[in-house]
Amino acid sequence: MHINILGFAIPLFVGFILLEYCIAKKKGLQYFNLHNSIANVSVGIAERLADVFVAGVFYFVYDSVQKKYGLFHIKSGVFVWILLFIATDFIWYWYHRLGHDINLFWMAHIVHHQSEDYNLTVSARITVLQAVFRHGFWLILPLLGFNAGMITTILLVHGLYPFFIHTRLIGKLGILEYILVTPSHHRVHHASNEKYLDKNYGDVLIIWDKLFGTFVKEEEEPVYGLTKPLNTYSFLWQHFHFFIELYLAVQNVKGIKEKIKIVFGRPDKVDPSLRKKAEEIFQVHQNQIAIDKPLNRYVVWQIIVLLISLSVFILLESYTSVHIKVAFSLLTVLTLINCGAIMEQKRWVFYMEYIRLAVILYLPFYSFSYWQLKTAVIIFVLAMIISYYNTLQKSYYRYVLK
What we know:
The protein is an all-alpha fold. The protein is 63% helix and 0% strand. It has helices at residues 9-26, 34-69, 78-101, 103-109, 128-137, 140-144, 148-160, 183-189, 207-212, 235-251, 256-263, 273-282, 293-315, 322-343, 349-365, 371-387, 389-400.
């Protein structure tokens, strides 16, 4: 049986998150907000799902680039692995730094910095676009001559470490503070305090920040999140708000040269007032009414089911048809949008439930050969929806909208 062992990463990471939560709760530390954590995990679910489709593509690209354009053909060895690790970390530093300095890259990276909490769930806030951008930077490695197998292996190993530095439970680590990116260093990076802005870009090694003048020690208590808080749990808006703000900023200037300056300029060159304008255009706001425990349970259970099903989906991806992969992906994204909409108390979430129902019905029936039975089931479901539409809508809104 051929399984993808990366499917085990999800329960492993969830286990560490629950452990951190239990320790923080036992110590009386308010490090977790339920809705922020759901928003964080939702972004991570989408990225893990997308990785099922793109991981093989990146391997193929690395392999092709190395074979056709590689300056050398580097063979495996202890020294070579160490060199590859250092090169990967060095490239990450510059990718990360440019991700904060250039609007085009910040557009993808901003999602990672939106959370006003700081715990292990924040490590999940990696968007698909961000993953594509950084893989583009890592194309330097096959050009140098490292083969695709080595690159993908080192990226997996290198990618594990940052998960564990997104925590407030671990203080300073003595001599390791001079070598590694510690939780203390990375707390600085996620802070919106003026003295901490655009500092500590390293991923594993802190030496690059010290070498290039971007290192700052953690002193005053960090305040987490963006300098201008996003104030929404919307899965879609978290991903696309800066796209809209950047578009509006480009529209506000004349001439190609000035527009290019905006796209490739620093984020602080985008007028902060454009956030409000974008929110008004798309009618985005965070509902301030606290939603109660039953509704929280509805959202939480959807996330739990998604985490379990995604883990199984990744484990067995080689046995899954393209149709099922696409349908499962669509259902997952719809559910993530649904959870954000419920936390935002959006009335259109009721219609989202119908779309999800259609996808759910498709999953077991798409390969079913008896088209007459398929048609009968679809007609029956449609008849029930039409007959009880008003009753269902009132009952749903009574439960979901507070």
